[in-house]
Specification:
six-stranded mixed barrel; about 400 residues; two-stranded antiparallel sheet; alpha+beta; single chain; 14 helices; about 20% strand
Length: about 400
């Protein structure tokens, strides 16, 4: 039963009607399926490229995981405890850090920023020294600091400017004596380098060695704001968390992944991705209305042939199946051509860019993902099945009538 329906539908797909207007309608319907499919795939690939490009900045600057205290601002961690964490097979490197808001002043200009104090092991977790675009990275000796370009521009700071030092000021945390009425602690530092990531981060952080921050903030030794952790790819967060929590039995801690560190950014990108998918799915639905029109015109054009098929013993259900399969053929073959076109354009843009971001020499980012191929094709076939079923409803009954 299905075989002859498929053969007739296959013949109708490639044969031409005697009426030119029907051929044009069929051709336009096929073209709209191709364009809608290619458009959805290209847009998803382009957004994937933009998403990957945007997240590359956070992936460069943020650690894989961060261990933070659930209560209080600081976490006491001994060197032996850090070594135990490093011995886990999932962990590549661990480094402590102190992060605190400080007041910057330089040549009568001021700004509030975050001091990120680190040790030499930090570069094994986050290769931040590779982001230096002017000057040098920290020597971890003395009072040298590294700023973002945004902070440097606001304060007018230069690299290795020995004529004027950058002052870091914080309120004192310990009680003052009667002889010491100054409520602030200040340290003068030398700017040795500038880093550049993005506009937000360039205006936020000041890097220094760990001991400088401990003295400035009056923090005891082995007390840190958090520990940053670099792990192997595709590590199980639940298993890693259980192992680390077991080492901090007397102190409640939180293990925060990179995605949770930028929860708002990831949520925004996922919502935008979903919105773009639904918008272009609507475009595909509009394009599939042409398939509905083409099927209706084909049913009207093939009335005489359907009567012949019925007289030869074909059932009304078989006649209905012919045009339903014809709709699926238009969607599947048109979708295949559209995907082939979309994949070709995306790969050309990826390897041989021809579209650039306006006003720059930066090629527009795209990302080829095999899951987008399945998403687009399954979306097309689901909508195409519904459209074909709706367009061919009652075809067998009308023919027998």
């Amino acid at each position: 039963m299905f075989a002859y329906s498929f053969k007739i539908a296959w013949r109708y797909f490639f044969s031409k009607s005697n009426q030119t207007v029907i051929n044009r309608i069929n051709g336009f319907a096929f073209l709209m399926v191709v364009v809608a499919t290619a458009s959805l795939f290209i847009v998803l690939s382009a957004f994937g490229g933009l998403k990957d490009f945007g997240l590359s900045f956070s992936e460069t600057f943020d650690p894989d995981y961060e261990i933070q205290p659930e209560k209080g601002k600081f976490l006491k961690v001994s060197d032996s405890l850090m070594k135990k964490i490093e011995e886990f097979p999932e962990v590549i490197a661990v480094a402590p850090q102190i992060e605190e808001k400080v007041f910057l002043s330089y040549d009568e200009k001021t700004q509030v920023a975050y001091l990120k104090a680190i040790n030499q092991n930090y570069s094994q977790v986050v290769p931040v020294e590779k982001l230096i675009t002017l000057g040098d990275w920290l020597t971890f000796e003395g009072a040298d600091v590294v700023l973002g370009f945004g902070v440097a521009a606001n304060l007018g700071v230069g690299v290795y400017d020995y004529s004027t030092f950058l002052n870091l000021t914080v309120p004192k945390k310990k009680k003052q004596s009667l002889l010491d009425q100054n409520p602030f602690t200040k340290v003068s530092t030398l700017v040795v380098g500038l880093y550049q990531i993005n506009e937000e981060l360039d205006k936020k952080y000041v890097f220094s060695r760990l001991e400088l921050a401990q003295n400035l903030l009056q923090v005891e030794k082995e007390h840190y704001s958090s520990l940053v952790v670099k792990t192997i790819p595709a590590v199980s967060e639940e298993k890693l968390k259980k192992k680390i929590v077991s080492l901090f039995k007397d102190r409640p801690i939180s293990l925060i992944s990179r995605a949770n560190q930028n929860a708002a950014l990831y949520k925004m990108l996922n919502v935008e991705h979903l919105a773009i998918y639904f918008i272009f799915t609507l475009v595909m639905i509009i394009g599939l209305f042409n398939v509905v029109g083409a099927l209706i015109m084909m049913v009207l054009d093939k009335q005489d042939q359907m009567k012949i098929l019925l007289s030869l013993g074909a059932s009304p259900q078989g006649i209905h199946r012919v045009f339903f399969i014809l709709g699926l053929l238009i969607c599947s073959i048109g979708g295949g051509v559209g995907l082939l076109l979309g994949i070709t354009l995306v790969l050309i843009q990826f390897y041989f860019p021809f579209i650039y971001v306006p006003g720059t020499s930066l090629s527009y980012p795209v990302l080829f993902e095999i899951e987008n191929v399945f998403i687009v094709f399954l979306t097309l076939m689901l909508l195409g099945t519904l459209c074909s079923a709706w367009a061919t409803r009652g075809v067998g009954k009308k023919t027998t009538a």
